[in-house]
Amino acid sequence: MKPYLESIRRLSRVGFILLALVLVASAFLSIQYCVAPYQNNVPSMTNMFIPLIVMVYVGGVVFAMEGFSFLNKRSDSDFYHSLPVSRKKLFWAISIAALTWVAAIVLSSVLLTVIIFTLTKTPFVQLYALIAVPFYTIGAMLVFAACAIAMSMTGTVLTGLGLTVLVLGLFRFMQFTIARGIIANTIIIGWLDLPWYLTPVTNIATGQIAQLMRPMLRQTLYSPINLIYSALLAAAELFIAQFLFSRRPSELAEHGAKSATLQTAFACAAVIPIAMLFASKVISQRDISIYIVIAVAVGIYVIYQTVVLRTFKKVLFSLPWMLIPLAVGVAGYFGTVGVASSMQGFVPNSQDVAYVQFTGENRGSENITYQQYLVSKVCFSESDVKNYAVETLRDNIATIRLTGYISYGYGSDQQAYSLSTQPVTFVLKDGRTISRVLTFLNKNTLLNYCEENSAYNQAIRSLPPMDAVCYLQGDDPFKGEYLENKQIFSALTEELPVTGFPANDSYRYYDPAYAYNVDEEQTYGSLSVAGYVGMTRFWDYYNIRVSMPKTASAWMQYQNTQSDDEHLDLMSDMLEKSATLQDNMDYFNLSIMFYNVPMSDGTKQAISYYFNRSANDNSQSLNDQLQPLMNELSAILVRSTPTTNPSDFCAYTNWSGRVHKTDGTFYGEDIIAELPTSYGDGTYVSGGNIYYVSNGSARYIGPSGGD
Amino acid sequence: MIKARKLSKRFGEVEALTNLNCNIPQGCIYGLVGANGAGKSTFLRLCNGIYQPDEGHVSINGGEVFDNPAVKEHCVFVPDELYFLPQSNLNRMSLLYESMYPRFSVERFADLCAAFKLDRTRLLNTFSKGMRRQAATILALSAMTDYVFFDETFDGLDPVMRNLVKGMLYDDVLERGCTAVVTSHSLRELEDTCDQLALLYQGGIVFESDVQNLKTSLFKVQIAFAEEYDRTRFGDMDILSFVKQGSVANMIIRGDSSKAKALIGAMSPLLLEILPLTLEEVFLFEMEVAWLFLLKRPL
């Protein structure tokens, strides 16, 4: 216990510094996120705990470097090894003290973040808070263990850091390159279809880097199996580090490695990642890049060996060893091609398939839909679905082998295929699971077969329960702008089952003659809904059509409530003035959507019209001719009354502009409130411009206020 | 008791210790002398379990030292190059020692700090080299171990502090039966301090002996005869050195000085004077003998 407490004390210097930095960063970033004026989605775990991602690496390395710093200096190493405590006990005292500090910092940061989110009433996935503590603690301990192994094998800071990178990343890089090679060679296997052991996020420390390079991997990064595996790996690496630490000669301090042989082994290990590039298919195996890779590998090897061995003769004699990493690279290449070919060629018999699952075409996205979440859990054991999936797999493979890629043009009837690309998981009766990204020739056939499954039918027509919803139409729920949207969502929930359509349009049948703007298909807008179920976040948008009159009416009611006659007058003034724009930067855009326009064929249609003017107008004469008509239209709009009946012939306007008055001031600067500089959907309006939404209320005014 | 048997340690191609054998009895102050690179520090590090022997073994009270806390808790080592925690003071270091050494005495630590007049709250990196050495000595002596190893510790202390440390060491040896192993380049330093001395040369102990015996085992004889004479006249006497200038000869003889005096006196010399040797002279002659022995040793 005493050595442990002593180690806690010894690590307290860096511990308190890191704690302070992480807490300050956590507080700053959390407050910044929570007070941002426009949110439309629940934050991801990465968004919530950015400082802890840095902590995984910095904390792991810093605690190991501080805890075992004595190994790098002869006098310090001698002192610690003279103490009456076994090396094993000393190692575990330092490691458990580091674990204590890491856990304390992670826990403090998570608590602070949760407190800030709770106080500001910002929605977040509560399970994230629970999982974050073990997740980031284990991640940091993986880095710590790698660094401890490195420091037990070397005696300088530089070689310690270099070897840490190798211990931590060499195997993972090989895993990554092999995985990439398989994906590139098979074409029908994506990052989320790889066997678990090939997924580059199994190690949650290096997985953080992998998820930055391949964002879709975030979907699996936080899985419990990765957490358990990483915990076991961290424990195993710590035991290896302890073994090496116990046998480490004290005299190794201030030396790169125990022997020249070990130095050469380090050099070979450092070259392996470069040689492994062959396997990844990043480089072509035919062109000059193969020679460049070999030259770079040899160059790094020679430089490393020259630095550590110091004599040209020794470097020369060690050169044959370089063939080992090159051989690993070549073996990696052929191994990857072989494995990829085998994986690609595997087609199960449909009678051997227990069921198939569809994980959703945008499964790698941060924003999957609620319906996709439900559908991904449905097990399709219907033979039609299984047969169609197996046949498609066979057909996709044949196409790839024929052309080198997925290529479908027209069917035998010269009609274009209605392709649907879907990740499919085959669960075989013997328990095996294979996942492939399949391109189905006919989306409607697939949907038709899927609809044989009642769970699927229910899933695609489900809307998220209200208690899972955190954002409606992007409004912050705590700012009191929520209730009208809630009414729209309630109406949607009530009316959707009546229509019989899927909640999300992506599950609708493909119709080449589909008219989106006719009769009941006329769309007034869309309601975005964001929330979470368990640890799964969803982000949906639902089109509000005439076919759902109560919903459409609620939508119109909401828009009208937000509108202001003063804004419409302003629009009218600006439109009139737009005929004589003087300033080169001035412009005016008006879009009008007319609904329920009676057509000669008896249908009612939605028709849009756009009118744009600027000081440098390219269609000056045409716009001049149209201007009186537009002025008249504007006058009609000003005279008209708001409606909430979706069956009415009505208009919906959306306008923006920057127009000088004759006195040099701008139209609207006296009535438009100051709003943030960033619009939530990513639109950014440059300084001085004024942007309006359809209801005429200002969404943005430039940083110069009245400019 | 510290026992080393066929103790060998190599650093790459350098043989630091080769087949070293020695016994260091309990309750003595044992001095190790030797030139730079003789292996003194290596021997102390092996005794403290810092290094693992390549061959042979070293034991304390019958137990192997390397990675054996049960043995190491009886040993404390004050190396030549000292270690202190970064940004620490004596109080912080005492916590470290207290957590590692089961018999660490806080009272003694306080007493020693007072005796050495060291500020316990002052950062150690602001101490002078000598003060840092005092601090390390205080911490080591407060650990109350049975074995204390000083690697050239006294060399960096001023005479007053040196005497103070020596006094404390004597007390520990006498009162607690503590054993101290001290290395130094300065024979004069060890001459006054140690009970036993060993000479390390090229990784091996050339000889070890009780200081008192050592001082009396060799003596210088100044002699002159009326007639011509040479070395053979003294028969079986163990003469290490014989230098004759004119009729006067100077001899270094190993053995009992009173017996030698009686024997030579019986030869009726014109001049006979028995002179004691300084420890330094004794070592020089012993090393010369050792060197000759090594040269004659078959390869």
Overview of this protein structure:
The complex is a heterodimer of chains A (707) and B (299). Chain A has 707 residues and is α+β, with helices and mostly antiparallel strands. Chain A has 24 helices and eleven strands. In chain A, the strands form three sheets. Chain A has a five-stranded antiparallel beta sheet with strand order 8-7-9-10-11. A three-stranded antiparallel beta sheet of chain A has the order 1-2-3. In chain A, strands 4-5-6 form a three-stranded antiparallel beta sheet. In chain A, a hairpin with a 5-residue loop joins strand 10 and strand 11. In chain A, helix 6 packs antiparallel against helix 7. Chain A starts with a helix and ends in a 6-residue tail after the last strand. The C terminus of chain A is likely disordered. Chain B has 299 residues and is α/β, with parallel strands linked by helices. Chain B folds into two domains: 201 residues, Rossmann fold (3-Layer(aba) Sandwich), CATH 3.40.50.300; 81 residues, 2-Layer Sandwich (Alpha-Beta Plaits), CATH 3.30.70. Chain B has ten helices and 14 strands. In chain B, helix 6 links the parallel strand 7 and strand 8. In chain B, helix 4 packs antiparallel against helix 5. Chain B starts with a strand and ends with a helix. In chain B, 39% of the residues are buried. The interface between A and B is medium-sized, with 27 and 30 residues.
